[in-house]
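fold-stage: in
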Amino acid sequence: MTQDTINKILQFRDERDWKQFHNPKDLAISISLEAAELLEVFQWSGEDVKCTENMDKIKEELADVVNYCVLMSDACGLDLDEIVLEKLKRNDEKYPVNKAYGSKEKYNKLK
C-alpha cells in the first residue's frame, strides 16, 4: 500500500472528525467485525472455496479490514511497513523454507 493511499484513508477520517472515536480498543473491535463480515462471504459456500461469484463483496470487506488496520496503526503510532517487515522476519525464522515448504504444519510441528 502506498503512502498516498494511507494518507487518503486518514484524510477521509479527518474530514469527518472521526479520529476522536478511534481508540485502539474500538478499532480492534472494528477490525474483528469487518473480518467476520469477510468470513461471512464464505459461509455455506460448500465446494466453492474461492467464492468467485462474490468477489465484489470480498473486495469490499477486505478493504474495510485494511482501512481499519491503517487507522489502528495510526492510533498506535506504528509504521505499517516496519511492523510487517518485522513479522515477516520472525515468520521466516519460525518457518524456514527447507522445513515449511509445501507444509501446512504449525512451526512447532515442522520436521
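fold-stage: in (second)
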Amino acid sequence: MKTILFILATALTLLSVESCYYDKAELLYPNSNLPCDTTGVVQFSTDVLPVMNASCNQGGCHNTVSASSGVILDTYAGIRTQALNGRLMGSINATGTMPKGASKLNNCTLAKIQKWIDAGTPNN
C-alpha cells in the first residue's frame, strides 16, 4: 500500500512540475513565417525605438552613456544616423553580428525597420 501511495504522490508531483506554459512563437522561432503586417505606416515611436531599446540599448551597449563603437541607438538622432549611413540594417541583417549575444531579429521586425528607413526615417 505504501508503494502505491508513493508512486501516486510521485506521479502527482511530476504532473504538477510538468504544467502547461505559454511561449511566444516569435521569440522561440524569430525567423519563422508568421504573418507580418507591413502595410501600414511604420512608426518610429512604436515600431523602431522599442526594438532598439530591447535589443541594442540594454546592458549598456549602444546608449548615450556608453555608446559602444560610438554608436548611439537610444535617441532618434542616433538611430537615424545609423539608418542613413547603412550601418543599422547592415548590422542587424548579418547573422551573428547584432544584437550581440542574441538571436537575429525576426524577419518581420527587419522588414518594418527597413520600411521606416525607406519612408525617409520619419520621427513619428
